[in-house]
Amino acid sequence: MAKRDYYEVLGVSKNATDEEIKKAYRKIAMANHPDTHPDDKDAEERFKEASEAYEVLSDKTKRQNYDQFGFAGVEGAAGNYSNVYRDFSDIFGGSFGGFGDIFDSFFGGGRRQGSQGQSSAVRGASLQYTVTIPFKDAIFGTKVDVSYSHDDVCDDCHGSGGSGTRTCPTCHGSGQVTRGNGFFQMASTCPSCHGRGQVIDNPCPSCHGSGLRKKSEKLSVTIPCGTDDGTKLVLRGKGNAGPNGGPAGDLIVFVRVQDDKYFVREGRNVFLQVPISFTQAALGADIEVPVVDGGKVRVSVPSGIQSGKSLRLKGRGVPSFKGSLDDRGDMYLTLIVETPKRLGLRAKGLMKELAGVLGEDSSPTPVPFER
Prior knowledge:
Blueprint: H1 6-10, H2 18-32, H3 41-57, H4 60-69, H5 82-86, H6 88-92, H7 99-107, E1 127-133, H8 135-140, E2 142-153, E3 162-167, E4 176-179, E5 186-189, E6 198-203, E7 212-223, E8 232-235, E9 251-257, E10 264-266, E11 269-277, H9 278-283, E12 285-290, E13 296-301, E14 310-313, E15 331-338, H10 345-358
Parallel strand pairs: 1-9, 11-15
Antiparallel strand pairs: 2-7, 3-6, 4-5, 8-9, 10-11, 12-13, 14-15
């Protein structure tokens, strides 16, 4: 298959500036990178094609030869993507919204290096913790104690790891080692210096040169009112301390809410089912029902209510998340009419008399489903 013109591949004119060429290439590279399209052969080919075009057009000498002689002028000079890899921090860095860090990790750049060759500080890992709370505590809020372990700065060496540092002979100060050749290369943390870029001749005996030590901590975590099952609370800076003096990660607390035996929650509303007798449904009655606040409230059941119908108790539901307890959803009370299972002789007689008065229908008309 014939090669396409390099300017056509990148979608730029022959008078395009270096910046325009770089911008066009990074757009294509982002859209077709093999790491984001692992099973897309077409995307991989577009990425290779654009990388080859960029390698030629981003080099002043190669571009002049290509402009003058075409593909013959750069024969053998294109197709070696190692130079493109090394330039990724430049292509995707700077004002490009942080994508340089992402693509550096794809191509073996890893942590950015300081002026002395030592890896710059990186953020510590975030930790996860799950708490389980009762149903009513989730509605009105509570406090829970969380005990966990995390990496903290070593008190003895203050995070330095020890004394007598020198450039790591394995990674030559980069903090990473690269394996493989050609198009695909894999970068990993240097096993000798663990990404620091330097080795320590006199490691701290307390942290064994890592600069970090395990620390147990107990925190009181506030669970806001209106918390629902699966809510994620983020405690900034309470995770692992960062290597090389980097900022600490976060502690992410996931909240699990226990089911209640009687109440069911949907959003800001709660639902409750209570039984009433046949006569209460027919004649109406005042009954007392429990509420999520605790205690009971008096509710008037209208006469003639049918089984399965609901009554609304305004403002007896769930407050908004982190909101005011004065602003709450509603409670819906579903009434279940119970049919007596056993009747005495007098009760049976009265029921038969009532059936005669009401004129029971022995051939009832079907009731349509509510949809």
